[in-house]
Amino acid sequence: MDNQRLLVWAVFGLMLWLTWQAWRDDYAPRPEPAPAVDTATPDALPDEPIPEFAPPAAAESTDELPGLPEAPETAAAPTDRTVTVRTDLANYVISTRGGSIVEATMRGYPVAKDRPDDLVKLLSTTPGNFGILRTGLRAAAGESPGHEALFSAPESHYELGDGEELRVPLTWTGDDGISVVKEYVFSRDHYAIQLNQRVRNDSAEAWSADHYTQVVRRFYRPDRSMFDVSSYSFDGPLFFDGRKSEKLDRKELEEPFTFTGPNAYFAAIQQHFLIAVLPTPDTNYLYRIARGDDRMTASIVGARQTVEPGATLNFERTLYVGPKLQSELKELHPKLALTVDYGFLTVLSQPMFWLLDWVHGFVGNWGWAIIIVTLLIKLAFYKLTETSGRSMAKMRNLQPRMKALQERYKDDRQALSQQMMELYKREKINPAAGCLPILIQMPFFLAFYWVLVESVEMRQAPFALWITDLSSRDPYFILPLVMGAAMFLQQKLNPAPTDPVQARVMQIMPIMFTGFFAFFPAGLVLYWVTNTILSIAQQWKINKVVEQEAKDKPRGKKAKADDG
């Protein structure tokens, strides 16, 4: 078996794997949801709030936090106002109805490179891209400053100026002497938002409440297309339980997902972007994720706490609404970078991205970083591929003798196979050695695929000339054509298949691969072109060395007999 034939099967395997992933996400049966894991101690999470999370028997909607009044799907009632916030990285709209963030627009991240003014919106009240981020306090008795309460804001517009922080306060005052200042803190050069809810108890009695955060967002069935690699990126909820992360698709949320424990987080992820809620570390919280027909709701609730008369208590939470910038994600939570969905190849994709990012720090161009990293990978496996290349070169030199054996034993397949094995043994050739380069390349190929598809750092990154976006296909298909030509040249350096049918398949393989790679990200094709060119240079050199060794080696009687 030669490496060209294995390459064909490897690509077919990749196509089959992508198709299987799409089928699994859409139709495969799922196991029953695991029961909630309760790691809370009796003192850390009181028993009283937990039963309130069981929806009423007659309730049909999963869009609302159980125990709270239902909210309209739009962000504001007639008496509501909105507060606009402009930072150096994003624009936000906050409704005075509950102090909810109802719009988040990413500055510097256009939906398409040719539409610079059409920016990505991660939160919006429009039906097709619906998403809001609610926060509030749920009182044990009396009025609650929740996501339906009406807050007041001193200003209608805030903008981050020369300072490092921007604080946006909203105030709620109850009839029973309880007042709440809900303050969003935005920081320069960061997408993380700090939320503080300061409760002041000016009544004569103690006041108890738990605090919650709720993300309500569109949740559609995936629409896969092999001509759009981004369609294979997961779009939906992801949950980290303190040890491992799990993507929850529609099948897994046929029943609500619940969990109680510390050091967890929730995120709504899509290609390149996420909305995450990060509670206080080492503190127990109750998580509940459910879905309706076209949206999902994730609720996170902390333990009930009491504010004594005349006292003040602060409830804190960290929110993240922005791109999956791995450096910032790791600062917020050591495992938040798992929201960059590299799939089962994370163990290889993460160090590969680190290496690419490190090289990019020197060259300042992701395209050149891909070329340099490809060269480094080639150098790392040079000795291993050299052994394989020598076997391929020896087999190439043996082509006349192999053809002579085929003519001699054309009517006796068993004898031909035996003579071929003896020939390989005598010449110290391992015919399977040609598989090694492909077996080595395929994991890196798949890892590169997911790094390019999922890493926002390379989103719409230019390379040179006509390649203005490494994360999308070559607009003029030049790189795939170069790749096809390089593959054709590489075939000429390798031994030709002895089987006529297989030889014809090898002849059309560069054309087939050109068509297949035409819709891959340009950065991935750049990697494959670079790797193929380096492989050509290496094999050409090996062929010359082996040919010279064959000329210098005296031919024995058996070799002359093989020639007929």
Key words describing this protein structure:
2 domains, elongated, alpha+beta, 564 residues, Beta-galactosidase, Chain A, domain 5, 19 strands, 12 helices, eight-stranded antiparallel sheet
How many helices does DSSP assign?
Answer: 12
Instruction: Give the mean pLDDT.
Output: 77
Characterize the main sheet. Answer: 8 strands, antiparallel
Number of strands: 19
What CATH architecture of the largest domain would you give? Distorted Sandwich
Could you describe the 3D structure shown?
This protein has 564 residues and is of the alpha+beta class. It has 2 domains: 35-339, Beta-galactosidase, Chain A, domain 5 (Distorted Sandwich); 355-389 and 439-551, no CATH class. It contains 12 helices and 19 strands. The protein has an 8-stranded antiparallel β-sheet with strand order 7-8-9-19-15-14-11-12, with no helix packed on it. Strands 5, 10, 13, 16, 17 and 18 form a 6-stranded antiparallel β-sheet that branches. Strands 4-3-2-1-6 form a 5-stranded mixed β-sheet, with no helix packed on it. β11 (236-240) and β12 (245-247) form a beta hairpin.
